[in-house]
Amino acid sequence: MKKITVLIVLLLTALNLFAINMVVEQIGDSSLIVLRIDSSKLHSKKGQFSYRVILEVVDDSNKMVLFNKRDIQFSKKDIVGDGTIIEFFEIDFIEGDYTAFVKINNKIRRDKKHEKFEFKLEGKGSVSSLYQVSKSAKAKFEIPQLNSSTELQNIYLYQFLAKEADSLFFVSSSQDSEKRTKLEPSKTLQIQLQKRLFVEGFKSYWVEAYIDGKRYKRSAMSYEVLHEFQREYGWEIQLKQIKYIVTNAEWEKINKNKSFSDKERVLAFWERNNPSPNSKENELQNLFYGRISKADRLYSVHKYRAGWQTDRGRIFVKFGQPDEIEVDNYPIGSFATQTWHYYSLQKVFHFYDKSRIEDYKLYNREEEYDY
Predict the structure, then answer these.
(1) Confidence check: pLDDT of 128 > 60
(2) What are φ and ψ of residue 292, in 5° steps?
(3) What is the pLDDT of residue 148?
(4) Are 296 and 308 in contact (CB under 8 A)?
(5) Fewer CB atoms inside 10 A, N or C side of the chain?
(6) Four-point Cα dihedral 235, 240, 241, 242, nearest 10
(7) What is the reported pLDDT for 28?
(8) In what order do the strands lie in the sheet with 131-135?
(9) CB-based burial of residue 270 (10 Å sphere; 0-12 exposed, 13-18 middle, 19+ buried)?
(10) What is the largest distance, in Å, between two alpha-carbon atoms of the chain?
(11) What is the pTM of this model?
């Protein structure tokens, strides 16, 4: 159980063998609960998954304020991105302390998973983060930032607002031009992405909402999430994380520059490495922060090592989601193993779990540095 308090966005993660992540956002007089489930930890029967998700929330007097259950059904071929299932729940906003109970019940094999979270609601926001989802009939999967070659079938953007916006725009930007498409004003945005919305060769995209004369800009990795990332890790740790994506010579130059603070060096690094220098959005930074966060969610080893510091987490941050993962959890006379295939990069990484606590070690380290 993890207890955290923030003003606008609350991020809670259960760091165990069954990864569940919960985000709470206060939007006007309502609260948005975003539940993420790692589908790689779920069990299937003949490639079919059938689960019931139950969310119960009680206040500090143990009074139930939310009870909701959802059925999730999908097959292995439906899984997209890194396989993160996402669900949205809304409750009326009242300041105070709350406890959430999440139950994940397998409807086929009858096994059950459950987690408990404690959180505090205080403060209000006007616009939620922007969530990017691939939606099938009975399951939603969160997907990473798109690029101009991404297939747009069944991809939606979700956003929740404190009140109906005065005006809404979807904006896409390339190196040379920008395209703005006016959307129907709404309190709850659900827009299916289509090719006509994007400028040719787009590098970034976002939604702009205008409410009571104020402009709110959100990309799929929102400012709130970036700020939460900075609060979670601190500038010293962020500087160490950058080491994953620079050469030894670049790292030596960055690390030797002691006349500047860690914060100044981190900000300067991302300013130098912005694919769209004239934009406040840095899609490379968003991608990197997203991978760090997902590595922590997927590969943390209980409480003694954060996911980004593990061998699997490091490879995930550097190279992204593998094209294929081979798993052997019960080899006779040996340790559990995983083999990650990156076909487009022509790379294969072999991991083994000698500790038997899912702290997988990279066997072929030379592959990591063979460019």
Answers:
(1) yes
(2) -60, -50
(3) 65
(4) yes
(5) C
(6) 90
(7) 85
(8) 9-14, 20-27, 30-38, 84-92, 140-142, 131-135, 155-160, 188-192
(9) middle
(10) 67
(11) 0.60
HEC string for the chain: CCEECCCCEEEEEECCCCCEEEEEEEECCEEEEEEEEEHHHCCCECCEEEEEEEEEEEECCCCEEEEEEEEEEEEHHHCCCCCEEEEEEEEECCCEEEEEEEEEEECCCCCEEEEEEEEEECCCECECCCEEEEECCCCEEECCCCCCCCCCCCEEEEEEECCCCCEEEEEEECCCCEEEEEECCCCEEEEECCHHHCCCCCCEEEEEEEECCEEEEECCCCHHHHHHHHHHHHHHHHHHHHHHHCCHHHHHHHHHCCCCCHHHHHHHHHHHCCCCCCCCCCHHHHHHHHHHHHHHHHHCECCCECHHHCHHHHHHHHHCCCCEEEEECCCCCCCEEEEEEECCCCEEEEEEECCCCCCCEECCHHHCCCC
Tell me: the pLDDT tens digits for 139-173? 899 886 676 667 778 899 999 999 999 999 999 98
State residue 92's pLDDT score: 83
CB atoms within 10 A of CB 326: 12
Token output for 298: 């997927």
Task: Name residue 212's amino acid.
Answer: D
Cα 182–Cα 187–Cα 188 angle in degrees, nearest 5 = 85
Given a contact cutoff of 8 angstroms between Cβ atoms, the answer to whether 104 and 55 are in contact is no
For the stretch 80-121, pLDDT in tens is 877 889 999 988 878 889 999 999 999 988 788 888 888 888
Amino acid at 261: S
CB contact at 8 A, 157 and 191:
yes
Beta-bridge partners for 32: 25, 90
